[in-house]
Design a protein that fits this description.
The protein has 161 residues and is α+β, with helices and mostly antiparallel strands. Helix content is 39%, strand content 30%. Strands 1, 2, 3, 4, 5 and 6 form a six-stranded antiparallel beta sheet that branches. It is globular. The protein starts with a helix and ends in a 6-residue tail after the last helix.
Length: 161
């Protein structure tokens, strides 16, 4: 099996797709490679309207702060990146840098290629976008838990610290 098909089968965005639908969308992805330390997404730089799915390796998500860069999260295979520009926002709203930890491979789907499915396969578009929403919801839930844990630690509540 190919890297594209294996990665898509394990991705949140294709959870609702059947095998035929998976084959249709798999033809739209390109495989990109990045070397250790190379930026995939960087604030202040015009970004392509691509959705990325990490296929191999890890990506560090970090923010610029007064002391330098602060690592927030590490993306694992199957995780999405580039959602902001893919769903139609501008790259000026990007605040995080995504950098390769070691050599990595990502699947890249351009917004223009994805939109070609609207007239011919609208249910694939619908199901994939539902998957994107589920992925974003998971990120928000994780961030809420982390915020609550940090608040508990700072204010020493709930007897856990």
């Amino acid at each position: 099996m190919s890297l594209v098909n294996d990665t898509l089968r394990n991705s949140m965005i294709t959870k609702e797709l059947n095998e035929t639908e998976l084959q249709v969308i798999s033809t739209l992805f390109d495989v990109e490679t990045y070397q250790a330390g190379q930026s995939i997404i960087h604030p202040g730089v015009e970004q392509p309207e691509n959705l990325y799915i990490l296929a191999e390796g890890e990506i560090q998500v970090s923010l610029q702060c007064s002391e330098g860069e602060d690592a927030l999260h590490v993306l694992k295979p199957g995780d999405l990146a580039g959602i902001v520009t893919f769903v139609g926002d501008t790259s000026e709203h990007i605040s995080a840098t995504l950098s390769a930890i070691g050599d990595i491979k990502v699947l890249s789907l351009t917004k223009a290629k994805f939109e070609t499915l609207i007239p011919t396969h609208p249910m694939i578009v619908y199901k994939v976008m539902r998957g994107v929403v589920r992925d974003v919801h998971g990120i928000v839930c994780r961030m809420n838990v982390e915020t609550a844990e940090m608040s508990n630690y700072i204010y020493r509540i709930h007897g856990r610290y």
